[in-house]
Amino acid sequence: MKLEPTRDPRQVLVEWMTAPENPYFARALVNRYWKHFFGRGLVDPEDDLRETNPATNPELLDALATHFVKSGYDLRDLVTTICKSSTYQLSAEPNKYNADDRQNFSRFYPRRLQAEVLLDAVDTLVGQPTKFAGLPAGTRAVDLPDSGFDSYFLTAFGRPQAVSACECERSGDASLAQSLHLINSDSLYKQLSGDTGRAARLASETKVDVNDKVRALYLTAFARTPKDDERQRVTVYLNKAAGQADAAKLRAKYEDVIWALVNTKEFLFNH
C-alpha cells in the first residue's frame, strides 16, 4: 500500500489490524484472553499461531474471533463472553473422565494468582498495604506503571521484566522461593504484626463475637463463609487466648490465623 506523505502510518496499521477481513488480529487477541483466564491458550504457546500448530478447538477459536469482530472489538464483551461460558464455570475437581486432561478444557485447571493480583490480595487480607517508593500510599500492585519498582514478592511470583512483548515473560509456576517467602518472610511478618493491621484490629474489637470475626476473615480471604469444622477449629484456637490478661497473645493468635489463610492453596490459586 502506498501512503500519502501526510498520512500517519500508525493509523493505517490500526485500520488494517481491525479490518473485518483481517484473519490474524482477532484470533491472536482472543487466544491471549483465553490464556489469561484459563492459563493455557486454545493455541499453545499463545504466540505460535502457525498452520502446523493448530488450536485444540479450532471451531471455538473461530467462533470467538468472529464474535469479537462483530462486537466492534469490544474487550469488555469478550471478557463477559468467556467468563459466562460453561467452560469457565467448570469445576476444578477432576473426575475419572478428565483427570488426565491437560489441553481440552474439560475441567478448570487451577492456577496461581498472578504476582500483582496476589500481592494486592495479601495486602487486603493482612490489612496493611505494601508501600512503593515514589508512589502515593495505598497504590496497588496492579496499578504500578512499569516493572521498575523493586519488590522481591513480585519478582519471586513471576512478574515479567517487560524486556520484550512476549507473554512468556510472565511465569505462573510455583517455586520453593515462593513458599519460603510466604512462610517466613520478614516483610510479611511486619505486615501481619503491624499496629494498624487486621490482626490488631480484630484483637481489639472486644464487643464483636469471635464467630463473626472468623466469618469476616473467611469472606475476605475466600469470598465464602467458613465450613462448620473450619469455624470450630479457628474459634477454639482463638478462645484459648480470649481470657488471658495479655492482649498481645490474642493478637498473636489472630496473626497466626491470617498467616495460615495466606498459605492455603484456596487463597493462592484460582480454582
Describe the protein's architecture and organization.
This protein is mainly alpha-helical and 271 residues long. It folds into 2 domains: 1-109, no CATH class; 112-271, no CATH class. The protein has 13 helices and 2 strands; from the N terminus they run ααααβαααααααααβ. It has helices spanning 9-17, 25-38, 58-70, 75-83, 115-126, 152-156, 176-184, 186-192, 198-204, 210-222, 228-242, 247-262, 265-268, and strands spanning 111-112, 269-270. It has a two-stranded antiparallel ribbon with strand order 1-2. α2 (25-38) crosses α3, α2 (25-38) packs across α4 (75-83) and α10 packs across α11 (228-242). The longest helix is centred in the last third of the chain and has 16 residues, at 247-262. The radius of gyration is 23 Å and the shape is elongated. It starts with 8 loop residues before the first helix and ends with a strand. The mean pLDDT is 87.
* Radius of gyration over C-alpha positions, nearest whole angstrom: 23 Å
Helix tally? 13
* Sheet with the most strands, sense and barrel status: 2 strands, antiparallel
The figure for the number of domains is: 2
* Strands in their spatial order, largest beta sheet: 1-2
Helix amount: 40-55%
> Proportion of β residues?
under 5%
The best one-word shape is elongated
Average predicted local confidence, pLDDT: 87
Low-pLDDT segments: none
Derived from helix and strand composition plus strand pairing, the structural class reads: mainly alpha
Summary, kept brief:
The chain is mainly α and 271 residues long. The protein has 13 helices and two strands.
